[in-house]
Amino acid sequence: MKNFKNIAISVIISAFILALSVFAWVKPNDEFSLNERRQLAKFPELNFNTLVSGSFMKNFENYTLDQFPLRELFRTIKAQSEISLFNKKSNNDIFEKDGYITKIEYPLNEASLNNASKKFKNVYDKYLKDTNTNVYFSIIPDKNYYLIGDDSNYLSLDYEKLVTNITSKTSYMKYIDIFSELSIDSYYKTDSHWRQEKILPVAKKIAGEMGVELKATYTKTPFEKEFYGVYYGQYALPAAGEPMYFLENDITKNAVVFDYQNQNNIRVYENSKGVLRDPYEVFLGGPLSLVTVENENATTDKELVIFRDSFGSSLSPLFIEAYKKITLVDIRYIHPNMLEKFIEFNNQDVLFIYSTSVLNNSETLK
């Protein structure tokens, strides 16, 4: 009887493994993970060079991990085991605290801050130095600054050191401190980004420092579906969706927006695009390399150039009322040397505004 039980268990396990193996080879490859918001690995090129260099096996391992059958189910089982069974506080550095899901950002990477400072200085020296431009710099704290605070149970950046480090290397720009204009409820519970309806104080603080005033009122328009942020998928455990709003009025509706990356006009709020992959792309089409926003009825004739990451997509619409033209530049996707083909730097306000996450991982900057 014992032998029969052992044989039966072996047969069941073998059949399960065989079924998974067959399924893995016959199922179509998934190109994109909505939960993780990233492209999944494709079958690597097989030739003599990739075999000899070892790149084929490395890429093949990534491919098998990304295309594994029932991958999302196993990710959830693994996450549940980490948190509930092994009593860990995080899964893949993602954790939940006070109803907010977030990612550990640690340690402070001073080499990355130096790299970011160098990239900004290169832009300044090439385009802004000795020109009639007003140059500003601001840092967007990640939500761990407000969520973790002095809680020693979680690793956290030394934010004071981060600010001191990078501002000391960017003294040619006027620093605008916005930390006090935010709180934990300024951020989505399942995402890294801030809520647009919560950042009007930030926009007004920055605008005031740049010498313009924001007076417009907005309608808080709900996004048509519940928002599930990037951490929802990465955490791989059940979490509730949350509402997403964008602030609109006649100014945002009538602004002329051009996407240089795809060579077409878009809207300030791209509802249809946001539904497809990342709803945060509702704001100015998401992470695009170069975008201009024009408002013939602005309260000033001034122009604003914003060097930004994804946080800038939701902040920028709040400046439209005051600037005749706004140019958004994302040097994660366009090399600064290309900018002279599109922008003549003269008599503009120029704002560098980046999240602590990008500054601490600045290898993404070109």
Strand line-up of the largest beta sheet:
6-5-14-12-13-11-9-10
Strand content: 15-25%
Rg, nearest Å:
24 Å
Give the % helix: 25-40%
Q: Name the average pLDDT.
A: 86
The largest pleated sheet is described as: 8 strands, mixed
Oligomer: single chain
Unreliable segments (pLDDT under 50, ≥5 consecutive)?
Answer: none
How many helical stretches? 13
Quick one: how many beta strands? Answer: 14
Helical/strand content category: alpha/beta
Shape: globular
Instruction: Give the N-to-C terminal Cα separation.
Output: 67 Å
Q: Helices and strands, in N-to-C order?
A: HEEHHHEEHEHHEHEHEHEEHEEHEEH
Q: How is this structure best described in words?
A:
There is one protein chain. The chain has 13 helices and 14 strands. With 366 residues, it is an alpha/beta fold. It has an eight-stranded mixed β-sheet with strand order 6-5-14-12-13-11-9-10. A two-stranded antiparallel ribbon has the order 1-2. Strands 3-4 form a two-stranded antiparallel sheet. It is globular. The N and C termini lie far apart (67 Å).
